[in-house]
Amino acid sequence: MRVVVSVAMSLDGFIDDSGARRLVLSSPEDFDAVYRLRAQSDVIIVGAGTIRADNPSLATRRVEDFELRRQRRAPPHPIKATVTRTGNLPPGAKFFAEGKGQKLVFCAARADSRLEGTLGSLATVVRLPDDEIRAASIIQDLEMRGASQVLIEGGAGTIALFLHAGVVDAVRLAIAPVTCGAKGWVRLFDDSLVQWPERRRTTLRKVEALGDTAVMWYELEPSK
């Protein structure tokens, strides 16, 4: 199974700022490419914090994406998955309300015991066998579901979870021609968040300009 991280950041390294509204970094052309990447994936993962802050739907909508999935002989919609330690998820979020594909909620064994009742038929709750969430346990579950490609879109804590575990195969990094400056809030590649795992080299495989956004694909060597 291939695990891909897709993330956009500003020139000064931020993926979010302190503003009340969602920080949009990608160009329209980059968004188009991300929609295609979603259509090529079997599972899309975002963290619970991203659902609360940005309220993404992640639903397949474009005719060309449905056609791409049909050509792959895949279901019309990829599985949407989220990761939560506490179970703090809004049932009215677009993640649950929009799109007809399967939704999974991966949570720690000690997450809110009322979560299943709160979400009801909106999603399948998968309680992992550990007190702390482990990326390897999530990957194992998704492999058993037959997933061949998993796309991780954020936020920083969720990306860090998988990068630190050494299970990521590629990183798609989009650089927007803007700076956040003093309003910058979250830097992905920060000592407190994400470092490339030790003893793993990253190889630049592709660079492309999508509108005003520079996109780089990095392949990571298998973890030792």
| CATH fold group | Dihydrofolate Reductase, subunit A
Strand order of the largest sheet: 6-5-4-3-7-1-8-11-10
CATH class: Alpha Beta
Based on the coordinates given, report the CATH architecture. 3-Layer(aba) Sandwich
Q: What count of structural domains? A: 1
User: What is the gyration radius calculated from CA atoms?
Assistant: 17 Å
> What is the CATH H-level superfamily?
Dihydrofolate Reductase, subunit A
Distance between the termini: 17 Å
Helix content: 25-40%
Query: Number of helix segments?
Result: 7
* Low-pLDDT residue intervals, each spanning 5 or more residues: none
Portion in beta strands: 25-35%
Q: Element order, helices and strands?
A: EEHEHHEHEHEHEHEEEE
Structural class: alpha/beta
Average pLDDT, rounded to a whole number, is 91
Major β-sheet annotation: 9 strands, mixed
Give the beta-strand count. 11
Globally, the shape reads: globular
